[in-house]
Design goal:
The protein has 2 domains: 114 residues, no CATH class; 237 residues, Rossmann fold (3-Layer(aba) Sandwich). It is 40% helix and 18% strand. The chain contains 12 helices and 12 strands. It has a 9-stranded mixed β-sheet with strand order 5-12-11-10-9-8-1-6-7, with helices on both faces. α11 links the parallel β8 and β9.
Length: 362
């Protein structure tokens, strides 16, 4: 009886996650996944399969595993509903029975992916929110700036300086022949330029090798099916990453960060985005303590593009910056300066959900 109750509770928790994900997919313009969620919540078989995935990200995890298998072999009828595979996809509302059939046929492969891969969603467009704070740090700290990214995925953000940008009335920032032009709207903010970058280190539980066709496919599968242009730009960005000197460290960031700092010359900027909100509060506190301790012998700059609650413990600290209500959903661009064992934090601005519009703090 206890086992049955435990399983019922697990299915109920998974269903709740899919209900929440349905709203997220609607906001993110992903109607196929939105339609899938609407059906999965009432399907114990699919909930049981998704339960092997990443907790609150179970929906994205499951659908990305399916997307990955379809990108590898697009001949299955289900592929006709994915806009990243078919230029004229069939209606999303008619796809669910095909999804169930596909998952039954590929259950073992899907379970293996859920056990061995993680949700590491990244888009090249996120670099739009990174450029301005990097300009601030480069002016304060000096150049060449040395980078350590926590939660680096495939390393796209570590190569942000290789791309060109059009974000305000300055025109195009970056090389005219850059392989990728990222456009958006920066409302206010510093004068933009491309900082000179020295060393680059990326840390992730499961790093993505941009030179591996299979690992690239997983990262591309994490793009929602309707975001075809974003997927194409990500593929171009990964081509750039494959040609960039980046040292990847696989495993727990709290384990690897001390060695990464020791191997990185000054000035150093540690950064992360849409990453620490997956961490428990205790781990976030350990990261802050680690950086404070390291700053007793050298200054460290940290850029964090995360939801407000990631810094909830800062709000009552000297130098802490209270976050406006919209930061709870969209995340803020935080700049933390560590020196002599102390830290000061400033919220520089707030990007919207796809990092295309950045409101800079006046």
């Amino acid at each position: 009886m206890t086992s049955a109750l435990t399983e019922d509770a697990r299915l109920s928790d998974t269903a709740a996650g899919f209900r929440a994900s349905e709203q997220i997919f609607r906001t993110m313009r992903a109607p196929l996944y939105e339609a899938f969620c609407r059906k999965v919540v009432n399907d114990p078989e699919m909930l049981a399969l998704a339960g092997d995935g990443m907790g609150a990200a179970a929906a994205t995890h499951l659908f990305s595993a399916v997307h990955y298998l379809l990108l590898r072999d697009p001949s299955d009828p289900l592929a006709r509903y994915f806009a990243t595979i078919d230029d004229d996809p069939l209606p999303a509302g008619e796809a669910y029975l095909e999804l169930v059939r596909f998952c039954r046929a590929h259950r073992d492969e899907i379970r293996d992916l859920l056990e061995t891969r993680t949700v590491q969603t990244t888009y090249a467009e996120r670099c739009r929110a990174l450029l301005a704070p990097m300009c601030v740090v480069a002016r304060e700290a000096g150049e060449p700036l040395n980078l350590i990214e926590i939660g680096c995925s495939g390393g796209v953000l570590l190569a942000f300086d290789k791309f060109a940008y059009r974000l305000n009335d300055q025109g195009v920032i970056g090389a005219p022949d850059a392989p990728l032009l990222l456009e958006g709207e920066l409302r206010g903010g510093p004068e933009l330029f491309i900082p000179r970058i020295g060393t680059r280190i990326g840390i992730d539980l499961h790093t993505i090798d941009a030179r591996s066709e299979d690992e690239r496919r997983w990262l591309l599968a994490l793009c929602f099916p309707e975001l075809r242009d974003e997927q194409r730009r990500l593929a171009k960005a990964l081509d750039v990453v494959a040609q960039t000197d980046i040292r990847m460290m696989e495993g727990d960031a709290l384990v690897h960060l001390p060695a990464a700092l020791a191997d990185t010359p000054d000035p150093v900027c540690v950064f992360h985005s849409a990453c620490l909100f997956y961490w428990p509060a205790e781990a976030r506190a350990r990261l802050d303590a680690m950086l404070r301790e390291a700053s007793r012998t050298r200054p460290i700059w940290r850029i964090a593009i995360e939801p407000a609650y990631v810094f909830e413990d800062w709000e009552n600290q000297p130098g802490g910056a209270a976050s406006p209500s919209h930061d709870l959903k969209t995340g803020g661009i935080n700049l933390i300066h560590y020196r002599d064992g102390q830290a000061t934090r400033e919220v520089l601005g707030w990007p919207n959900s796809d990092y295309g519009v950045i409101d800079w703090r006046s």
